[in-house]
Protein: ArsR family transcriptional regulator
Amino acid sequence: MPEHEVRTALLELLAELGTVTATEAAGRLGYSSGLCSFHLRQLARYGHIEEVPVTGGRARPWRLRQAEPPAADASGEGFGQLARGLEDESYRRWLAQRDRAPDEWRRDEAFSAVVYLTPEELGAVAAAVRQALAPYQDREQQPAARPAAARPVALIARLFPLLPGSAGDEGMEGEEG
Structure:
């Protein structure tokens, strides 16, 4: 599964169709129109898409930007930066608005850890996280599979080596292991 499934699907759909509204995207992709609308606005905010000028009606079509922003390069790093920005923004919004959530939803399970791993172990940890989430992934496109109390929850995992000079790391160069 792509790391940012909804945004990737929306960008691919726009590349295929040229223009799309949130309602059209929802119908084609199987997501809610609200979810598509949110991600379309975020993609626009970061300069990847833009609204198509319309002369009447309530339709709000979107298209890929005519000139791709410089941050989006062939390596995909531009999309990675976009994704991290959207994740960070979503978390800031949660922190600012969590007092409006029902009591049972007012906590988050944010945590971080520094562990010493080999490259192979790093891959195994990532695979274990993906495997732990696998039983819940069908709920995105199959609303009937969701328990009544289920709500969308963001899970953001970033596994990366701490390079020399990083907090909690004595450095990689010259270490024996």
Remarks:
- The longest strand covers residues 49-51.
